[in-house]
C-alpha cells in the first residue's frame, strides 16, 4: 500500500484524501442522524418524559439520514463541488467547454470545432447549409 501511495500523482492523492473524508462522513452521518434520535426517543419513553418539541425534532432528524450521503459527496469532493457551482451559477470562473460539431463528408456542411465559455454558451444550428452558433443567454 505504501508503494502505491508513492506512485500517485498529487491530484490523485488529493482526490483520495477527499474520498476518504467523504466515506468517514458517510459512515458517521447516518449513525448520528439515525441512531441518536432513536436513542433519545427510547430514553424519553423509558423515563416517562414528555416533550413534544424534542420528539418532533428527533423525528425530523430521521429524515436527514438518506440525504447526508449525497450532500457529503457533493460538498467535499472538489470536481462535484465545482460542477454544482457552475450549474447553480455561483462560480464566476471562466470554465471552458470544448464542443465539436462534425458533418457527413458527402454533404456541403463544414467541419467546425469551437471552444466556448460557459457564460457564452451557444448551440450550433444549420442555416443555408452553414453551421452557425446561436446564443442561449
UniProtKB/TrEMBL annotation:
SUPFAM superfamilies: Family A G protein-coupled receptor-like. Pfam families: 7TM_GPCR_Str (PF10326). The chain crosses the membrane at residues 21-47, 53-80. The keyword Transmembrane applies. Keywords: Membrane, Transmembrane, Transmembrane helix. InterPro entries: 7TM_GPCR_serpentine_rcpt_Str. This is Uncharacterized protein. It comes from Panagrolaimus davidi. The lineage of its organism: Eukaryota, Metazoa, Ecdysozoa, Nematoda, Chromadorea.
Amino acid at each position: 500500500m505504501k508503494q502505491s501511495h508513492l506512485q500517485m500523482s498529487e491530484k490523485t492523492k488529493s482526490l483520495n484524501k477527499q474520498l476518504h473524508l467523504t466515506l468517514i462522513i458517510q459512515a458517521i452521518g447516518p449513525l448520528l442522524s439515525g441512531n441518536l434520535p432513536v436513542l433519545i426517543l427510547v430514553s424519553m419513553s423509558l423515563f416517562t418524559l414528555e416533550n413534544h418539541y424534542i420528539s418532533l425534532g428527533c423525528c425530523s432528524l430521521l429524515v436527514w439520514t438518506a440525504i447526508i450521503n449525497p450532500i457529503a459527496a457533493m460538498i467535499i469532493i472538489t470536481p462535484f463541488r465545482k460542477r454544482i457551482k457552475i450549474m447553480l451559477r455561483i462560480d464566476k470562473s471562466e470554465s471552458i467547454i470544448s464542443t465539436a460539431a462534425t458533418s457527413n463528408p458527402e454533404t456541403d456542411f463544414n467541419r467546425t470545432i469551437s471552444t466556448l465559455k460557459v457564460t457564452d454558451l451557444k448551440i450550433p444550428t444549420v442555416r443555408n447549409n452553414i453551421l452557425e452558433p446561436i446564443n442561449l443567454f
